[in-house]
Amino acid sequence: MATTSASDIGQLLNERFGRFAELGLLTGAIILLCVIFTMTSPVFFSVGNFINIIRQTAIVIVLGLGMTYVIISAEIDVSIGGVMALSAISAGLVINAVGPVAGAIAGLTVGLAFGLSNGLITIRFGIPSFIVTIGTLGIARGAAFIISDQKPIIIQSAAFDSVFGGSIGPMPALVLWALVLTVIAGVALCRTRFGRHVYATGDSEQAARYSGISTNRVKITTLALTGLAAGMAGLLFIGRLGAARADMASGIELAVIAAVIIGGTSLFGGRGSVIGTVLGALLISIIDNGLTLLGFGSSWQQLIRGVVIIAAVALRDRDEEGNFL
Amino acid sequence: MTNVIRLKNISKQFGQIQAVEDVSFGIQENEVIALVGDNGAGKSTLIKIISGVLQQTSGSIYIRDEEVEIGNYNDAEARGIETVYQDLAITPNRTVAQNIFLGSEILERGPLGRFLRFVDDDEMQKKAGELLSRLELDLDPGSAVKNFSGGEQQSVAIARALQSDPDIVILDEPTSALSLDATQRVLDLIKRLNEQDVTIIFISHNLEAVFDVADRAAVLASGRLISVEDLSGVEENELVGMMMGRAQQGAD
Fold first, then answer.
1. How far apart, in whole angstroms, are the C-alpha atoms of residue A104 and residue A307?
2. DSSP secondary structure string, B38-87?
3. Position B87 in a domain
4. Is some CB atom of chain B closer than 8 A to the CB atom of A287?
5. How far is residue B28's CA from residue B10's CA, in Å, rounded to a whole number?
6. Dihedral sign computed on CA atoms, order A24, A30, A33, A39
7. What is the count of structural domains for chain B?
8. Listed residue (A179, A180, A176, A181) closest to A163, CA to CA
9. Shared-domain flag, residues B131 and B182
10. pLDDT value at B252 more than 90
11. Of B34, B91, B28, whose CA–CA distance to B234 is shortest?
């Protein structure tokens, strides 16, 4: 008797619905989870809880935007948690010493500088970005502890708080920032020449190079953008909490990579979307939120997140030889 | 007949290895010339020099009697030279149209679109469709290339090379990984290109294919040019003899 494997289901969906199959599947999974949690928890289906979910998701989404670009270009950046912490600490110190604008610029500059360094070291020295960014993760996190003297930096700027930590009506500024950045990143990836070169570089670096695309420049740029996104996430984090800490966002890189992969971006490059990453991040947040409301602790959340990642990849489209596309 | 490209005393050395040695010959306008030779004969190195991937150690390249330096892919494209590489220079997850315009995407016409460098997918799809029709290729420009057979993917790679309307197309082993049927389709495509006044440099181990499409063959062995033969006046076994004989001499 013929058996149907997860990859067969993925193949079938892809043949029927093309590139929208994965996004449809993700949206379906999100709706299903919402229905299950609404039926099992009396507080899940409420405006307050949904705002809480998107607030929790916003920083993962902002980091995921850069990560989507970098993974589509067939590189990876695991330094974002450390870079985000160092950016936040730097921004906090400068905000308190100089002012909010200089602080924001300092935070973004630190993120961009680390991202650019990741790109230049990866390309110029031919070291895999995974290794380079493990190194810069340690450097950035260590530097954050050193310059903060292991103490939290309390932000003393009402203007900064209102721009990054306030809200417009019921909507937190954090979420609006994430929304605006998502639209910019999504449009740039889908519609611009640079976006096309990012896809081509990850899909076949050789073909892209033979077509006159500077694949090195594309990769340096995607890694720089990921650093910039980490800098921005650092600002949003201190806007939300009113303080910067060197140990903040520890391990966030794994949640971000999970969101990007669950969202349909191929770890081998060449495939993926910003909207997929947003849905992937929302799926993880809804699982975390629902399980918390039902009384399951972080151990269960981690366990179920792991199952979801494996299930999402198992349903992926594969080529005739069974390799993931 | 006019030489569209002329190579004069081209040599290329990689460390101690002499990959190409003192090669000189001309390629005539609108001909199909094959580069033949055993593995290591210097064929791929020679076409990489013409297409700007490698630079010669010594010697000169003339395009229509003007000495040129081809330092990179963009120089070659500007001189009307396009290359289709052996290992299918396509991006499988992208559509046919996106592959055809890879690196040369058409931008939207409006000032905002141009400023933001937005690509014009409709225009690229339309132009890709026109190009495919001209080449009599029945392929949907909106389909992802990974959905096609090896022969069809090779046809997309060739169509991509023609997008910039080049004078010279270099095909590096275009049939090496293809079935018999697919090989014949690609050879038919090469003949149609030649009928449309494109000069073709064709590298192949498949001498049957060489005799099918090429007017002349430049025989290389151990990096040296052995002979340039008019294929209407030479037998296949004579060509093999030139390739092997010289290769043995080189080995001696």
1. 38
2. STTSSHHHHHHHHTTSS--SEEEEEETTEEE---SHHHHHHTTEEEE-TT
3. no
4. no
5. 18
6. negative
7. 2
8. A176
9. no
10. no
11. B34
| Residue B62 and residue B181 share a domain | yes
B19 and B116 share one domain: no
Structure tokens given for B151: 């022969």
Same domain, yes or no, for B171 and B96? no
Question: Is there a contact between B44 and B203 (Cβ–Cβ < 8 Å)?
Answer: yes
* pLDDT tens, position by position, B22-39: 999 999 999 999 999 988
B51 and B132 housed in the same domain: no
CA distance B19 to chain A (A): 22
In a domain, B85, yes or no: no
Asked if B210 and B232 sit in the same domain, the reply is: yes
Taking alpha carbons only, the member of A268, A231, A229, A221 closest to residue A119 is: A221
Both tokens of A249, joined, read 């966002």
Best CA proximity match to A259, nearest among A229, A292, A238, A216: A229
Whole-number pLDDT of residue B88: 63
Q: Which of A196, A212, A325 sits opposite B77 (nearest CB)?
A: A212
Residues of B in contact with A213 (CB under 8 A): 102-103
A77 at B interface, C-beta within 8 A:
no
Burial of A101 (0-12, 13-18, 19+ CB in 10 A): middle
Give the CATH number for residue B212. Answer: 3.40.50.300
Residue B249 has pLDDT above 60, yes or no: no
Residue A101's identity, in one-letter code, is: V
Helix, coil or strand: residue B118: strand
Distance CA B230, CA B228 (A): 7
Residue A209 with chain B: CB contacts under 8 Å:
73
The residue segments making up the domain with residue B143 are 92-165
Q: What is the pLDDT along chain A (325 residues), one digit of tens a residue?
A: 444 555 555 555 555 555 567 788 889 999 999 999 999 999 999 999 999 999 989 999 999 999 999 999 999 999 999 999 999 999 999 999 999 999 999 999 999 999 999 999 999 999 999 999 999 999 999 999 999 999 999 999 999 988 998 888 888 999 999 999 999 999 999 999 999 999 999 999 989 988 889 999 999 999 999 999 999 999 999 999 999 999 999 989 999 999 999 999 998 999 999 999 999 999 999 999 999 999 988 888 888 888 888 887 787 655 555 555 5
Q: Are residues B142 and B207 in the same domain?
A: no
pLDDT above 90 for B77: no
Cβ distance of A270 and B93 shorter than 8 Å: yes
For the segment B224-229, the average pLDDT, to the nearest whole number, is 92
Tell me the two tokens of residue B44. 């791929």
